[in-house]
Structures are given as structure tokens and as C-alpha cells.
Write a structure and sequence with these properties.
single chain, nine-stranded mixed beta sheet
């Protein structure tokens, strides 16, 4: 049978979705508890994609509300129109990723987005988890809260970074919460709490300055307290690793342990410890510093003029994809070299699900402001020695390389694993290695 044109398929899908909604969702929406829940895309009620300005009455009443990701068909149709009208730039002949996102790859990705990517399938994949919203510090916070059947499971707060999202964790939430269903043992289970950071994804957008990593750490501590967790573990990379350092320093009595897949520490004050760097560490550090010399332009613009950048990225899905995918390409372990095949590490569905979250929620501009806030917000309680048991997973293509002796001077270091492969987006790129290391580290604290 001949494949229907994309616009016709979209209209049929929209009509079918509406029919399903009327037939099956109407009784659910009649429930006063669920009907008060803010839709994840209230900010998409108009085709301009303006942000949601207020918290729902239920959340304002300090409640925790169940939540589902439900993108309006009109927003999907609008995305398809914009992709159809994409105006791509030129590219220097015989060049590849050295100038930025490679043209032929982006053209292929856009075609897949238009003709093969199924947002509804990815939406269902994410909705297999238990999602909630609540208000913290006057801001609507979205989070996955997936509890294990094991009442003795360790609560684990997993914190994403930029340009990631909660979709990074979709491969590992099941094995962490129900290891018995994935070849593991029930006693190794976790309760997983995975929030969307303020200004990211399905969480609210701050309307005032100051949402620095330190402030976000206080927000996440308040979230965990509201959920009733007195003691818990924390894990994450990128901004998640930075935010978790503030959590560990300010709330050490609440934490079982800190796990990081982007270990951060400066040179120790003790000169003898500062010089305790192995040849392998020195070579790796020099190599990553040389590589990152051409990888930090995004930090400069996002740390100084994120609003100007946002006009283009929030208006063009192709531009947004190019900006985000460049980082997935540049920060992934590419044994085949800098022009390596990104599809060998992530599926297009995985990449586009993450990009689509930013697109449908209009949060690319608000997410990049974390760089500006980090530069321009005064730290209230500068981080010193972190007296929380710490574990580190060191992936070879991580954007920072911290010598072990430096980490030992900055943390109560209990666990250190040099990974054979993998990069910055560890939970998505190397889920089994990441899972195993989380389990090994937190096994130290199980009864």
C-alpha cells in the first residue's frame, strides 16, 4: 500500500487522538483531583508557545498531583509545518563536524523527524513511569517518582543537565527500581526521583533571576523533604553533578551518598597532593583540555546572552536540533574519531525525543539561563570539603578530567571506577556500565 502523505497522516492521527480522548479520557478528567492538574503543555495553548504564567490552584495549595505528558496535536502539526519550511545553510565542501553540526547529518535527521519519528510512541514510553508535579519555592516542579516494590530500596535523586532531560534516564529507571525483572536482585533496588530542573522540560520557568545551581539544590532538597525522604542518595552528571555538590555540602546529614559521572575538583591547597597525578591522568587531562578549547563557545553565549540565542532556537526546530545534537556528537566517546557516526551511539528516536521535549515545552531559552545565573549569582555558601561518602564513574570522553588525588582532597571518596568506554551522556550512551557502578557504590551502604 502506498504511504500516505505526511500532512494527511498528521490530520488522521489528530482526529484519532481526539476520538480516543473523548471516548476514554473524559471519565478521568471528571475526577476533580486530576482535572486540576496543569497540562504539561499549557504553555503551548497558543501557537506562539508562550510560557505558562501561573501555577494551578491544586499545586498552589501545596499538593502533589499526578501528571501525564500529553502534547496537543496542534503543537505536533505546527512542528511538522516548521520542519517542512526549514531553510538550511550552506556548508564548506569536504568539511564535516569541525565547523559545527554537519549538514548532511542534520538533513537526514530532519527527514527522519518528519517521516518516521513517532512522538506519541515516545510520549507513551516516558509515560510508563509515574510522573508528578508540585510547587516548590513558588515554582511548578515536574518529577518522575518511580517507587520500587522493595520497601527497603534506597531513595535515589537523579539529576540531569544541559542539553539533557529526564529522557536520558529512560533505559535505567526500570532496572534500578525493579532489578528482579532485569536479571538482578530485588535487594539492589532504588526508589527513583528524577526531576525536570527549573526552566527545563515540564517544570515551570522561573520569572525572576537567581536560579543558580546553588538555589536549584535548595529546591531539590525541599522536593525530597516534601516527598518524605529523610535520607537518600544523589547521582548525576553535567549540571546535575554541579547541583549535587551544593546539595551534598549544604545537606550532608540527609545524604546516604553522592555518585557523580562528572567528577569536579580543583587543585588541592596541599602542594604534595596537587602533584600526585599519574601519567595517564596527566595525558588524559591535557588531551581533554586541548579538545575542549574548541568546544566552549556555547558556554560563552549561554553564560552572557542567552536571550538573544533563544529567539532563533525557540523559533526553529532545525536550529534547535543542530544546537543540541552538536553536543551529543562532541561529547560522546567516538573511537572512530571526531567525524564518527552518532547513530552508532544513540538512536534518532532517543536524540529527537530529547530535542522534542525542549521544543514542545519552549524551554530552550530558560534552560540556557542556568549558565548566566551560574556566572552572575553570588554564592551564599561556597563549597568546601564535601563530607558525604562519594563515588565517581570516570568515563573516558567526559568533558572534564579530574585527577583522583584532587578528588580525594575535596570529597570523602569511597569509590572510583575508570570506565572502558563512554562519554558525557553516560546513562543513555552506556546504561549498563552506569547501572553497574551505581549499584556497586550504593551497595556499600545497604544493610
Amino acid at each position: 500500500m502506498k504511504k500516505l502523505p505526511r500532512p494527511l497522516r498528521a490530520r488522521i492521527a489528530g482526529a484519532f487522538t481526539a476520538l480516543i480522548a473523548v471516548s476514554f479520557l473524559h471519565p478521568v478528567l471528571a475526577d476533580p483531583q486530576l482535572s486540576a492538574i496543569a497540562n504539561p503543555v499549557d504553555r503551548l495553548a497558543s501557537q506562539t508557545g508562550s510560557p505558562m504564567d501561573s501555577i494551578s490552584p491544586q499545586l498552589a495549595a501545596n499538593e502533589i498531583a499526578a501528571f501525564r505528558i500529553e502534547i496537543p496535536q496542534a503543537a505536533i502539526d505546527d512542528l511538522m509545518r516548521r520542519l517542512t519550511n526549514t531553510r538550511l545553510p550552506d556548508q564548506i565542501a569536504d568539511s564535516s563536524w569541525e565547523y559545527g553540526t554537519e549538514l548532511s547529518y542534520l538533513r537526514e535527521l530532519i527527514a527522519y523527524w518528519q517521516d518516521e519519528f513517532d512522538w506519541r510512541a515516545q510520549e507513551a514510553l516516558l509515560n510508563q513511569f509515574d510522573h508528578f508535579k508540585t510547587a516548590i519555592d513558588g515554582l511548578e516542579m515536574h518529577f518522575i517518582h518511580q517507587r520500587s516494590a522493595n520497601p527497603d530500596a534506597i531513595p535515589l535523586l537523579m539529576v540531569h543537565g544541559w542539553p539533557g532531560s529526564i529522557s536520558e534516564f529512560y533505559k535505567i529507571i526500570g532496572p534500578l527500581t525493579a532489578p528482579q525483572d532485569h536479571g538482578g536482585r530485588l535487594e539492589d533496588s532504588f526508589h527513583i526521583i528524577a526531576p525536570s530542573l527549573p526552566g527545563f522540560g515540564f517544570s515551570g520557568i522561573p520569572t525572576e533571576p537567581g536560579y543558580s545551581p546553588e538555589k536549584i539544590a535548595h529546591v531539590l532538597a525541599a522536593l525530597m523533604e516534601k516527598l518524605g525522604y529523610e535520607r537518600y542518595g544523589i547521582a548525576g552528571g553535567d549540571w546535575g553533578a554541579i547541583i549535587n555538590r551544593y546539595l551534598a555540602y549544604n545537606y550532608p546529614d540527609r545524604l546516604i551518598g553522592l555518585h557523580s559521572n562528572m567528577m569536579l575538583a580543583g587543585p588541592p591547597a596541599d602542594e604534595s597532593r596537587r602533584e600526585q597525578i599519574t601519567t595517564a591522568e596527566s595525558d588524559a587531562r591535557a588531551s581533554r583540555q586541548a579538545y575542549m578549547a574548541n568546544e566552549t563557545a556555547y558556554q560563552q553565549i549561554q553564560g552572557t546572552k542567552p536571550q538573544s540565542l533563544g529567539y532563533g532556537l525557540n523559533d526553529s526546530p532545525a536550529g534547535l536540533a543542530a544546537w543540541i545534537v552538536e553536543k551529543f556528537h562532541g561529547w560522546t566517546d567516538m573511537p572512530q574519531g571526531p567525524d564518527g557516526d552518532l547513530d552508532a551511539h544513540f538512536s534518532k528516536d532517543e536524540l529527537l525525543t530529547n530535542v522534542s521535549i525542549y521544543w514542545f515545552t519552549s524551554t530552550i531559552t530558560s534552560s540556557t539561563r542556568i549558565y548566566y545565573e551560574n556566572r552572575n549569582t553570588q554564592v551564599e555558601n561556597p563549597i568546601g570539603y564535601i563530607d558525604v561518602p562519594t563515588g565517581a564513574a570516570i568515563f573516558p570522553a567526559e568533558i572534564f578530567v579530574t585527577p583522583r588525588s584532587w578528588a580525594e582532597a575535596a570529597y570523602d571518596l569511597r569509590h572510583w571506577t575508570i570506565m572502558p568506554r563512554g562519554g558525557h551522556f553516560a546513562a543513555l550512551e552506556q546504561p549498563q556500565l552506569y547501572l553497574d557502578d551505581l549499584r556497586d557504590f550504593f551497595q556499600l551502604f545497604r544493610q
